[in-house]
Amino acid sequence: NAGVTQTPKFQVLKTGQSMTLQCAQDMNHEYMSWYRQDPGMGLRLIHYSVGAGITDQGEVPNGYNVSRSTTEDFPLRLLSAAPSQTSVYFCASRGAGYGYTFGSGTRLTVV
Amino acid sequence: SQKIEQNSEALNIQEGKTATLTCNYTNYSPAYLQWYRQDPGRGPVFLLLIRENEKEKRKERLKVTFDTTLKQSLFHITASQPADSATYLCARINAGNMLTFGGGTRLMVKP
């Protein structure tokens, strides 16, 4: 099992560009979520999904879109990148148990 | 507002000693709390979960306590080793079954 796979690992964007951060899990987990981690701010929830076709907003959703067309994939789209979106992004999933499995992260820099 | 807080200062201890990290919560009563470990450049890794009706939970050298009167969870690592050096995060489940994290405490174990 690969667990939670995030791509790319690193990305540099120019202000105004759009991109999609990919997240895939092979554990048949229903719950998936996206977090961003910033120094001094900790991990903050962006969007989440409790199953295919169902998504909802977290604490800091502005500037991001998500969709969940399959159980395995939960991509995060940046619509028009801003320097404030420079961060490390983590995708996480959870099955029947309570603990979440995290990906290794995407480090995004917006210049 | 509902808060979950950890000591933001790093904890430095000597190898072989017991490390104790604190997680405090205010304005709510979580059904359970989770603890994660995060190494630099990696995603958090689930360690332990403790329910509100459990006073204590153990896993190898790890022990977690939950005091609903003090609104506090303590995370202990006994016989600490330099390999235990990492940031430790506590988290609660919010209304959407997603995680809300504390800011984390960095532990440094010196040989």
Quick overview of this protein structure:
The complex is a heterodimer of chains A (111) and B (111). Helices cover 0% and strands 52% of the residues of chain A. With 111 residues, chain A is mostly beta strands.
Write structural notes for this entry.
- The complex is a heterodimer of chains A (111) and B (111).
- With 111 residues, chain A is mainly beta.
- Chain A has no helices and eleven strands.
- Chain A starts with a strand and ends with a strand.
- Chain B is mainly beta.
- Chain B contains no helices and eleven strands.
- Chain B has strands spanning 3-6, 11-14, 19-26, 32-38, 45-51, 56-59, 62-67, 72-77, 86-93, 99-101, 105-110.
- In chain B, strand 6 and strand 7 form a beta hairpin.
- Chain B is globular and about 40 Å long.
- Chains A and B meet through strand 4, strand 5, strand 9 and strand 10 of A and strand 5 and strand 10 of B.
Shape of chain B: globular
Given helix and strand content, the structural type of chain A is mainly beta
Mean pLDDT rating of chain B: 92
Q: Roughly how much helix do the residues of chain B carry, as a percent range?
A: under 10%
Which outline of chain A best applies?
A: globular
Relative helix content of chain A: under 10%
Order of helices and strands of chain A: EEEEEEEEEEE
Main beta-sheet strand count, sense and barrel state of chain B: 6 strands, mixed
Order of helices and strands of chain B: EEEEEEEEEEE
For this structure, the quaternary state is heterodimer
Structural class of chain B: mainly beta
**Beta fraction of the residues of chain B?**
over 45%
In angstroms, what separates the terminal alpha carbons of chain B?
A: 41 Å
Largest sheet of chain A, in brief, is: 7 strands, mixed
Specify the number of helices of chain A.
0
Summarize the topology:
The complex is a heterodimer of chains A (111) and B (111).
Chain A: E1 4-7, E2 10-13, E3 19-25, E4 31-38, E5 42-51, E6 54-57, E7 64-66, E8 76-78, E9 87-94, E10 101-102, E11 106-110
Parallel strand pairs in A: 2-11
Antiparallel strand pairs in A: 1-3, 3-8, 4-5, 4-9, 5-6, 7-8, 9-10, 9-11
Chain B: E1 3-6, E2 11-14, E3 19-26, E4 32-38, E5 45-51, E6 56-59, E7 62-67, E8 72-77, E9 86-93, E10 99-101, E11 105-110
Parallel strand pairs in B: 2-11
Antiparallel strand pairs in B: 1-3, 3-8, 4-5, 4-9, 6-7, 7-8, 9-10, 9-11
